[in-house]
Amino acid sequence: MLIESFGNDSFILLTGLLLITGILVAKFSNKWGLPALVLFIVIGMAVGSDGLGIVYFDDARAAQLIGIFSLVIILFEGGMQTKWETVRAVALPSLSLATFGVIITSGIVGYAAYLIFDVTLLEGLLFGAIVGSTDAAAVFSVLKERNIKAKMGATLEAESGTNDPMAVFLTLSFIELILNENSSIWGLIPSFILQMGAGLALGLILGRIASFALNRIKLDSSGLYPIFSVSFALLTYSVTAIIGGSGFLAVYVAALIIGNNELTYRYSIFQFNEGFAWMSQILMFIILGLLVFPGELFSVNIVISGLILSVILIFIARPIAVFLSVAGMKYKMKERIFISWAGLRGAVPIVLATFPVVAGLENGQLFFNVVFFIVLTSTLLQGSTISYVAKKLDLVGPKKDTPHHSLELISIGKANAEMIQFHTNRDVEIVGKKLKDLEFPHQATISAIVRNDQLISPYGETQIKAGDFLYILVNTKHKDEVKRLLEEKKKKPQDAAGK
Questions:
Q1: How many CB atoms lie within 10 A of CB 455?
Q2: What gap in Å lies between CA 255 and CA 77, rounded to an integer?
Q3: Angle, vertex CA 222, rays to CA 219 and CA 226, nearest 5
Q4: For the residues of 262-312, what is the DSSP string, one character each?
Q5: How far apart are CA 233 and CA 400, in angstroms?
Q6: CA pair distance 491, 105, nearest whole angstrom
Q7: At what angle do helices 164-179 and 247-259 cross, to 10 degrees?
């Protein structure tokens, strides 16, 4: 059955079924030891024309638009979840990997493609640029539920969040050089400076404007705040891209600023963005799966060339790029090995592979199929073994403290009140104290405590323990004061003796 023959109701039914299938697949992906994105792609390939024949889809331009839109949402959600204090310590190596690392990887893989495909050197370098960057969607998804040490996770997430602009720039630049004989590499330098400079500047500016607007503009419903935040993500990307800057870089920087500020309805915004990012990821990978034809993808020529280039990328280009990019920085040998192994490819290379197709390059479809095969190889081999490699290299961190519960609230925006969630640890002053002894403002109340996934009804004699999740209803004007009291650290013995 072709998609053209679908009525509106049938199309909506198909969309619902694909989303439900994607959600169920995501639930069992960790149990099966496979990254969810691989299974999403398989779903798309299964319902496509070479599979069950339910949907025929070959519109590279539409897939490109859906991919870019989805990547904006995924980058925004990932940036908001990133803690600045964690990223700050790895900012330099991450930026080095996102720039020099991409260039080195692209150059090695590009030269190999030039030799394998018997194409021009520029076309080979174009192929290298397409697969040169790691993928934010893949990295965020794979690392989210895995207990990797904070330094490693922060390095990989910051790299994947900031290396897309370099890959996009290189891809578009090589397409321009191929199509326009009068173009020169030196003439692209001003364009690079504009893209990166404008992306960083507008990300900073619009991130601050978004944070201010989310906190100061009073909306009638709490459900509008998450939509408001996503609107700023789309605005940031589009404004930056229209003036010639890097929209992806701007979105990630803006998200980093917004996520590290105090926000009205922070819980609702984060939950909505996480769900929206999952939906975008499911639809994007299914669409990309629909775009490929398995009969062409698994032809002998594509499989052989794809395997050779995958080996070069995973075992040669990526390790060389990592070791050179972080040379002289405080990374142990085992940490460099892990970063080399965790350089996952995903949606970004596939989306970038649509650019040569849309531009009408002679080898565009060949490049798309080989890139798709490399992405499948990378995610299957590297994505499914990240936890195992981290364990072998002794880079497994503590279990992530994520509550397996939620507290749903009605809109209280007009009452100028907020619900704060705070996770206690042994270092904070309030641990061991009874509620009646806390010096909270009168307009702040601990409404609930969740301990070991059990709800506790608090009263004056209740003692706070390490690991508790406290839910505090507080007047907005007292929020900062309550935060300071909650985060106050216990005095060390030597500090007390000094006084």
A1: 12
A2: 7
A3: 95
A4: --TTHHHHHHHHHHHHHHHHHHHHHHHHHHS-HHHHTSHHHHHHHHHHHHH
A5: 27
A6: 49
A7: 170
CA 445 to chain centre: 35
What CA–CA distance (Å, rounded) separates 480 from 184?
Answer: 54
Joined tokens for residue 156: 């990989």
Distance CA 286, CA 40 (A): 5
The pTM (predicted TM-score) of the whole model is: 0.79
473 φ/ψ angles, rounded to the nearest 5 degrees? -90, 120
Q: Which of 342, 302, 301, 282 is nearest to 38 (CA)?
A: 282
Please give the structure tokens belonging to residue 19: 């989303």
CA distance 489 to 484: 10
Q: Which residues contact 72 (CB under 8 A, 6 or more apart)?
A: 233, 234, 237, 247, 248, 251
∠ CA 146-149-150, nearest 5°, is 100
| 87 CB-near residues (< 8 Å, 6+ apart) | 94, 154, 157, 158, 256
Rounded CA separation 238/498 (Å): 56
Report the alpha-carbon distance of residue 480 to residue 470 in Å, rounded: 16
Q: Which two tokens stand for residue 347?
A: 């949606």
Only one residue has tokens 């565009």, namely 364
Cα–Cα distance between 228 and 140 in angstroms, integer? 23
Phi, psi of 54 (to 5 degrees): -75, -40
Task: Compute CA distances 50 → 6, 293, 485, whole Å.
Answer: 18, 6, 61
Q: Which residues contact 478 (CB under 8 A, 6 or more apart)?
A: 441, 443, 444
Sheet holding 417-423, edge to edge: 417-423, 469-475, 444-451, 454-456
**Quick one: pLDDT at residue 258?**
94
Residues of the chain with pLDDT below 50 are 1-3, 402-411, 413, 496-497, 499
pLDDT for 410 equals 47
Where b means 16+ CB within 10 Å and e means fewer, 226-261 reads bebbbebbebbbebbbeeebbbbbbbbbbbbbbbbb
pLDDT digits (tens, 9 = 90+) for 29-74: 666 656 777 888 888 888 887 777 788 888 889 999 999 999 999 8
- Rounded to whole angstroms, how far apart are CA atoms 418 and 140? 29
Beta-ladder partners of 434: 463
Instruction: Please report, as a single letter, which amino acid is at residue 239.
Output: V
